Amino acid sequence: MYKSATRSFPVYDSLRQAIIEQALKPGVKLPEDSIGETFGVSRTTVRNALVRLDAEGLVDLQPNRGASVAVPTIEEAHDIFEMRQCLEREVMQRLCAMDPKPIVKALRAHLAEENKYLHVDTTRSIRLAGEFHILLAELTGSKILANYVNEIVSRCSLIMARFAQAHSAKCGLDEHTEIIAAIADRDAERAIARMHRHLHGVQDRALLKPDDAEKNNVSDILARYVTPND
Amino acid sequence: MYKSATRSFPVYDSLRQAIIEQALKPGVKLPEDSIGETFGVSRTTVRNALVRLDAEGLVDLQPNRGASVAVPTIEEAHDIFEMRQCLEREVMQRLCAMDPKPIVKALRAHLAEENKYLHVDTTRSIRLAGEFHILLAELTGSKILANYVNEIVSRCSLIMARFAQAHSAKCGLDEHTEIIAAIADRDAERAIARMHRHLHGVQDRALLKPDDAEKNNVSDILARYVTPND
DNA sequence: AAGTTATTTATTGTATTCAATCATTGTATC
DNA sequence: GATACAATGATTGAATACAATAAATAACTT
């Protein structure tokens, strides 16, 4: 839906990544000026990216008082997790009605990747765990379902940044393995049950920590996310 | 998610309305200049609205060649309708687990409205039919579910504009009545079945007409959608 | 005359500019 | 010392301006 051939795309993408990886924590202000400087673009361009992120629910764009990383309430957190259950149930349902061979192959390949970076690169590990769910959705072949799952997984990352203990964001790899097995057997009921329990575990671990909305300097953090192209 | 206290909001809102009501048909170009003139705002402001509509899937924003009303393919159409089935099934499920009294009351009130304008004001009638589904979603109390349903109902309007016979967009009121009855009985299975059949009917009627992408003048059409506030 | 290239025109991408709003600090008053 | 108000500074809202790209037209070649 988003064509990357614009200057605002890298801004959008880096901000998104930074939010998902919890480098930009909920509540952090996102001033157009400083972000523009970081990326070497004008405020117009930054604003474009912010509008998009607002539409996706990752950023909160208040009139006349600018943008900040969205701060999900505990109610929204429950709401989002419930929706996630619904979407991923649908994913399981559909995958179990398809030819499991290519699906399982792709999933196993991803799982190997997850294993590779477990206990090695935490940030990457967390990202891969999320991408496992996005891959599942993509394998259904439904663009719109994949989009929704993508969006909601991102928002769950945000929730974990707000409420969860540090590093509790990692999905259990065993659980991913179990889910793949159920799909391989085309056992929809089991796949749904496994997924449900898995997500419930993630949710449980997510809703513990009281918030410490520590202020961080945006520019310093973002500088690490600029992809150098010269 | 979208704060209305900006100049771009009326532009966004009018465009959205015009697309949903099928006054702006799929494929119609949306030049920033002429739209800006129509609303008395600058291109910057128009662009803001277009970016948002692109994010919602109602507008297609191609780099360097501007915006046009999205033209869903037949594959996307099926994809979207399938997703809609999933979402509205969830709505039924949730509503049937709640206290039916206030829900049924709100739904009956809406149905009365639908009846009132049936055979009187076609445009309004079509809009109300869509809003029935949005109301259902809102009554679950889930913001995010309501958002998704809202979005997907809009995109279904787009699909009907592209493929359906003129005026086949109207939902059967009897079917709405049946759905309400099932909710009143807290009979989830029946509610889901009714909704499923209902949507299937809508989908069937939607996928007939070959496209006649007649060119239309945007400004003329949009002029009717400008809400005068002075 | 058909096709190709050059030129012009229209439209978009982005930066810059100015006005409006909000946040903050300082000052006065009680 | 606390509160209310005023002035300042910082940040956003939105229009304008300029550069870059694409579309349309004209001129040219074969």
Descriptors:
mainly alpha; DNA-binding (chains A, B); transcription regulation (chains A, B); Arc Repressor Mutant, subunit A; globular; WH-like_DNA-bd_sf (chains A, B); 230 residues; 4% strand; 10 helices; homodimer; three-stranded antiparallel beta sheet; DNA-binding
The secondary-structure class of chain A comes to: mainly alpha
Distance between the termini of chain A: 27 Å
Q: What oligomeric state is this? A: homodimer
Q: Which strands sit side by side, in order, in the main sheet of chain A? A: 1-3-2
Order of helices and strands of chain A: HEHHEEHHHHHHH
User: What's the CATH topology name of the largest domain in chain A?
Assistant: Four Helix Bundle (Hemerythrin (Met), subunit A)
Number of discrete domains of chain A: 2
The total of beta strands of chain A comes to: 3
**Overall radius of gyration of chain A:** 18 Å
